[in-house]
Design goal:
mainly alpha, 2 domains, about 5% strand
Length: about 120
């Protein structure tokens, strides 16, 4: 009798927790993105844009190879423009001049070059 009550209470608990998650506001993004171990790739694949391709302006191109495959392209101009605008805002807000402004511009240029290489 105790086992039946235990099974019913555990089942009720899982039902209520699952129903609460269906109401909205629940996200497992943090849990899935920090997965480690041999199955981490499978868990991270469950996430929307887990590798950031959509946020980095990933463009799927039409198949050009004989098996229906083609190399995707990235239009990173929007991201680079955002970084440059942010850089200009920081320079204006912090009133950076001289070597500091040159160093900040060098950092932004290096990151934009890395983005283009990606």
């Amino acid at each position: 009798m105790v086992l039946v009550l235990l099974r019913l209470s555990v089942g009720w608990h899982f039902f209520k927790e699952g129903a609460a998650k269906m109401d909205g506001g629940f996200s497992s993004t943090g849990f899935l993105s920090s997965a480690k171990g041999p199955f981490s790739g499978g868990f991270q694949a469950m996430l929307w844009d887990s590798n950031g391709k959509i946020r980095l302006c990933y463009q799927s191109s039409r198949p050009s190879q004989p098996g229906g495959w083609s190399e995707p392209s990235y239009n990173t101009k929007a991201v680079a423009d955002h970084w440059k605008a942010y850089h200009a805002d920081v320079i204006a807000y912090q009133r950076l001049e001289g070597d500091w402004a040159k160093a900040a511009a060098g950092i932004v240029k290096r990151r934009v070059d890395q983005l283009d290489e990606f």
